[in-house]
Amino acid sequence: MGPTKMLSARDRRDRHPEEGVVAELQGFAVDKAFLTSHKGILLETELALTLIIFICFTASISAYMAAALLEFFITLAFLFLYATQYYQRFDRLNWPCLDFLRCVSAIIIFLVVSFAAVTSRDGAAIAAFVFGIILVSIFAYDAFKIYRTEMAPGASQGDQQ
């Protein structure tokens, strides 16, 4: 065996990688077509509104900000997994079902937290209530679309109405 050659970072960057390594690294490439698709725009809107609600709760009632922060991170994780197509590596999980449950749990959480926050009659809490109701309607629309396109009986056969 000959001496092993230590490669610097520049040498590793300049050499041509093998095809298997390239395919492995493309798992984290962002799919820009997904970000502009209907589902991508829905996830981005949910993410932005969740962040706005988190800021409103931070300014008024800090007891409720954990729920908004949790939903923010869950939505961010789904956006990352879908945008990078990394979710396809976890083929044992039923992703439409997980996404549907994410939407349903967010609806329940934001309904409860929004109506609890509006009782304080603070300006930021009322803004969080308004944004919460808008976000609940967006999550409900997302859950409806997921159920209609991927989970409904006959969704795999297409609409034959």
Layout of SSEs?
Layout: H1 9-14, H2 19-25, H3 32-35, H4 38-59, H5 65-83, H6 95-117, H7 123-151
Give the number of helices: 7
Q: What fraction of the residues are assigned to beta strands by DSSP?
A: under 5%
Overall shape: elongated
Overall mean pLDDT: 81
The helix content, as a percent range, equals 55-70%
Please summarize the sheet with the most strands.
none
**Topology order in helix (H) and strand (E) letters:** HHHHHHH
CA-atom Rg in angstroms:
21 Å
> Which stretches are low in confidence, meaning pLDDT under 50 for 5 or more residues running?
6-13, 19-23
DSSP summary, beta strand count: 0
Query: Terminal Cα separation, in Å?
Result: 70 Å
**Assembly type:** single chain
Question: Which structural category fits the helices and strands?
Answer: mainly alpha
Short description:
The chain is 68% helix and 0% strand.
Structural write-up:
This protein is mainly α and 161 residues long. The chain has 7 helices and no strands. The longest helix has 29 residues, at 123-151. The N and C termini lie far apart (70 Å). The relative contact order is 0.12. Residues 6-13 and 19-23 have low confidence and may be disordered.
